[in-house]
């Protein structure tokens, strides 16, 4: 995937001038050594500035990590730390910053070798707030060398998402379909997050598509599609048009990314798309998403934003699905009850027409879009990729702006069950603990739209921290039994 940032983290040790410098220097070296023994040492750069005690040291360290190409920073309190210099370090670094601190190593070193970083972290947090400086402080910020190495590794996906957002442009083709106001949200919060957006008409897209007619690259793209689809290539006659559309989108991305490094697309897919283009874009959307360029359906701008965040964190293809329909009782009784501990209310079907990457499907076939074909000629609804989603761990999530321009988010971990859906589209049977309550008291209560982003794996911890770093105060999750939602009726 070439649409994702590569994160290089610089680690800078800080020291309070009334504590031994050697505490910070030696402890920093121990963290770097532990990281190299457990993880890829190329991800971490050790700033050679011995320690940062003053504002001038802070400037020297900033210049050094910048010259080294670092786009994320770890401020490491090897002892109590200089609360002013260390927070200025975070303030002036252009990228995400994490604060961690050293635990005491031995009982016989608590006289001259005591660092008091446990105490210093409190002052650091206060000064960060005082200066309105954002920083990531993990759940367990004070630890041994090995534990701090683990915290740095956990910081990487968080930093990757934050760096990506700072250099992201979302390209949309609208307007949104009628009766899909749920996918409409003010774009003001995109700018607050540092994300650029370019809104276009689908007529602009259609013009670009027509200009790609006869593109000499079309046959090569068709061959690639044929290889991907294999026996599922049930509509070979539509592949040249789909290849033409894929080249249109990829060329548009390159021509319109501007000064931004990364791109996501919020695409138009109905109702006039089929009759004018002569196909549905689902399969092409799935292919771009598989390349690391998320494409949302129905001009869902915040859906595309959410997909990009998930792609950065997981470094893998994501998808965008409708939280679509309940699991019928007979399927639950025959295939789920007794095999898993989930109640029927914990399960649902996640569906979309065919936008999920073939890499994430148990099987796939190119077909026509059944829902659209109910009111349109079938031949113009070709181009959707159908198949049951692969079983395994997933994270359902979304970042959304409300109508009054407030950011909200949710995160819920679960799994796709290895149960046949007996249905159409890109679809799977999902199980999330306490889904029924989560559906009512987060998704409905907080007015989230029907689209949810899906990352393939459990990434809730990193997603939650990214949303916190972005300043999202309302982050919903699937609360366990006994943990009451604010609006939940205690007598229900």
Notable characteristics:
16 helices, six-stranded antiparallel beta barrel, alpha/beta, five-stranded parallel beta sheet, globular, 492 residues, 21% strand
Give structural notes.
- The protein contains 16 helices and 18 strands.
- The chain is an alpha/beta fold and 492 residues long.
- The model has no long low-confidence stretch (mean pLDDT 93).
- 37% of the residues lie in helices and 21% in strands.
- It is globular.
- The protein has a six-stranded antiparallel beta barrel with strand order 10-11-16-15-14-17, surrounded by four helices. It has a five-stranded parallel sheet with strand order 2-1-3-4-5, sandwiched between helices. The protein has a four-stranded parallel sheet with strand order 7-6-8-9.
List the helices and strands and how they pair.
Elements: E1 9-14, H1 21-38, E2 44-46, H2 55-67, E3 72-77, H3 83-92, E4 97-102, H4 117-130, E5 142-143, H5 145-166, E6 168-174, H6 188-192, E7 196-201, H7 202-211, H8 218-229, H9 239-256, E8 262-266, H10 272-277, H11 282-291, E9 295-296, H12 301-314, E10 318-325, H13 329-336, E11 347-352, E12 365-368, H14 370-373, E13 382-388, E14 392-401, E15 407-416, E16 426-431, H15 435-444, E17 451-455, H16 460-469, E18 474-477
Parallel strand pairs: 1-2, 1-3, 3-4, 4-5, 6-7, 6-8, 8-9, 13-16, 15-18
Antiparallel strand pairs: 10-11, 10-17, 11-16, 12-13, 14-15, 14-17, 15-16
């Amino acid at each position: 995937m070439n649409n994702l940032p590569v994160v290089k983290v610089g680690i800078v040790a800080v020291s309070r001038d009334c504590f031994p410098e050697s505490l910070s220097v030696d402890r920093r070296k121990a963290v770097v050594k532990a990281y190299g023994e457990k993880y890829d040492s190329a991800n971490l750069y050790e700033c050679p500035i011995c320690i940062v005690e003053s504002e001038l040291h802070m400037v020297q360290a900033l210049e050094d990590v910048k010259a080294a190409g670092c786009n994320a920073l770890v401020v490491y309190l090897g002892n109590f730390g200089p609360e002013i210099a260390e927070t200025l370090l975070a303030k002036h670094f252009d990228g995400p910053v994490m604060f961690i601190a050293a635990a005491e190593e031995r009982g016989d070193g608590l006289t001259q070798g005591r660092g008091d970083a446990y105490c210093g972290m409190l002052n650091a947090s206060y000064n960060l707030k005082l200066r309105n400086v954002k920083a990531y402080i993990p759940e367990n910020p004070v630890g041994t060398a090995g534990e701090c190495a683990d915290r740095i590794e956990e910081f990487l996906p968080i930093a990757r998402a934050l760096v990506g957002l700072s250099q992201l442009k979302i390209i949309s083709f609208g307007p949104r379909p009628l009766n899909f106001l749920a996918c409409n949200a003010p774009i003001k919060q995109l700018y607050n997050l540092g994300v650029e957006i370019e809104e276009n008409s689908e007529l602009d897209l259609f013009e670009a598509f027509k200009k790609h007619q006869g593109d000499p690259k079309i046959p090569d793209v068709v061959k690639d599609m044929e290889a991907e689809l294999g026996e599922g290539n049930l509509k070979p006659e539509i592949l040249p048009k789909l290849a033409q559309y894929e080249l249109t989108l990829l060329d548009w991305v390159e021509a319109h990314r501007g000064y931004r490094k990364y791109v996501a697309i919020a695409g138009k897919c109905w109702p006039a798309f089929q009759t004018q283009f002569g196909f549905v874009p689902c399969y092409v959307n799935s292919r771009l998403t598989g390349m690391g360029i998320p494409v949302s359906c129905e001009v869902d701008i915040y859906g595309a934003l959410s997909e990009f965040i998930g792609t950065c964190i997981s470094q893998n293809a994501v998808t965008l699905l409708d939280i679509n329909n309940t699991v019928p009782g007979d399927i639950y009784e025959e295939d789920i009850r007794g095999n898993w501990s989930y109640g029927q209310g914990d399960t649902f079907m996640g569906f979309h027409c065919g936008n999920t990457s073939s890499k994430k499907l148990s099987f796939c076939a190119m077909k026509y879009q059944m829902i659209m074909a109910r009111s349109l000629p079938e031949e113009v609804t070709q181009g959707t990729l159908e198949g049951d989603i692969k079983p395994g761990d997933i994270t359902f999530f979304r970042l959304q702006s409300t109508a009054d321009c407030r950011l909200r988010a949710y995160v819920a971990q679960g799994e796709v069950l290895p149960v046949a859906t007996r249905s159409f589209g890109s679809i799977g049977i999902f199980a999330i603990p306490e889904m029924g309550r989560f559906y009512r008291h987060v998704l409905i209560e907080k007015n989230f739209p029907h689209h949810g982003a899906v990352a393939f794996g459990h990434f809730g911890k990193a997603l939650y921290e990214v949303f916190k770093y972005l300043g999202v105060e309302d982050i919903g999750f699937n609360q366990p039994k006994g943990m009451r939602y604010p609006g939940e009726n205690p007598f229900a």
